[in-house]
Design brief:
By secondary structure, the protein is mostly beta strands. It is about 10% helix and about 50% strand. The longest helix is centred in the N-terminal third of the chain and has 12 residues, at about 40-50. It is globular and about 60 Å long.
Length: about 300
């Protein structure tokens, strides 16, 4: 069975920080995440150059060997991850090549980027019948970010496309929980387990922490649930053993909220993960399942049940 311990035992520190300048762009709830070599330098760059504000910081611990910072401004959310195991990546390697954002005022954004000394890598390119005006700039570590002019009639703004489901926001607070976690063929009970939820970003995001100790060692997870558009929910977290940012697509199903993730493995086999929240008037439970064969068989990876608040 694949090793799927989805744990990130880090402790979130919520920080509402005023950016050095106002946001350089205005978009409609865009998001991207980056693995960085220097968290302090990258955070400083996104605050000073793009005018984003830090809304959450999860410091590095000996258990996680990783730190995370989330910044937001002008409708853009950026997640920065720094891992001890990170290695420099050749820009021509297969995989993610660049991020993209559609902005409300393309000309004004270009002028603001130049005024703040941001390196323009390519463009700007004028609008054509087959493409909007666009350019590509580099951040402090050389990551490429492409800006597109918003087409006439598209919706703009810096608010949630829709609120988070009430079933999730009412979880806000600290909970004592029973947490069972799979190791090998057994579900083991995690000691001193507790879980917390914090509504952030004016109701646009829900930050989740789960922590405890398994066989004397710290164990935990962290996640952020957001609303990227009017139809979808997303749940993003980092696997501390593999250092990969996973983003699950979600939807409401009655009293449950279900998030799914899939990946095509070597040989065409599909690996699936499913995370389910069930919320009642007095509490909640969560379950995480894994299917190694495209949904033909499911294995319970972990489950959590609230006992008190």
């Amino acid at each position: 069975m694949p090793n799927l311990s989805l744990v990130l035992p880090i402790f979130l520190v919520l920080t509402i920080a005023s950016p050095a300048q106002s946001p350089v762009l205005s978009t409609n709830d865009a998001f991207f995440a980056l693995s960085v070599r220097d968290m302090d330098a990258s955070t400083k760059w996104y605050v000073e150059k793009l005018g984003l504000a830090v809304i959450m910081h999860a410091p590095r611990t000996a258990a996680t060997r990783a730190s995370a910072t989330i910044l937001r401004g002008g409708g853009l959310t950026v997640e920065l991850i720094q891992r001890d195991s990170s290695i420099p990546r050749n820009p021509m390697s297969a995989g993610m090549f660049k991020a993209g954002v559609t902005v409300d005022d393309f000309g004004g954004t270009v002028a603001a980027l130049r005024a703040r000394g941001v390196e323009i890598a390519y463009g700007p390119y004028p609008r054509r019948p087959d493409q909007p005006a666009n350019l590509i700039f580099r951040d402090n570590e050389g990551n490429l970010i492409q800006l597109f002019e918003r087409a006439s009639g598209e919706i703009a703004g810096d608010s949630c496309p829709r609120p988070l489901p009430a079933s999730l926001t009412r979880l806000s607070g600290q909970w004592a929980v029973v947490w069972e976690y799979r190791r090998g063929d057994s579900l083991l009970t995690v000691d001193s387990a507790k879980m917390s939820f914090t509504v952030a970003n004016r109701g646009c995001a829900l930050l989740e922490q789960l922590e405890g100790r398994l066989r004397g060692e710290p164990l935990g997870s962290t996640a952020i649930i957001t609303v990227p558009d009017t139809l979808r929910l997303q749940r993003a977290y980092v696997d501390s053993e593999h250092g990969t940012i996973l983003t699950m697509e979600g939807r409401s199903r009655g009293d449950s909220v279900v998030f799914d993730w899939s990946n095509v493995m070597e040989g065409g086999r599909r690996l699936l993960l499913r995370h389910v929240y069930r919320v009642t008037a007095t509490g909640f439970s969560t379950q995480t399942f894994m299917s190694p064969n495209g949904g033909d068989q499911w294995l319970l990876v972990q489950r959590v049940r609230a006992t008190s608040k």
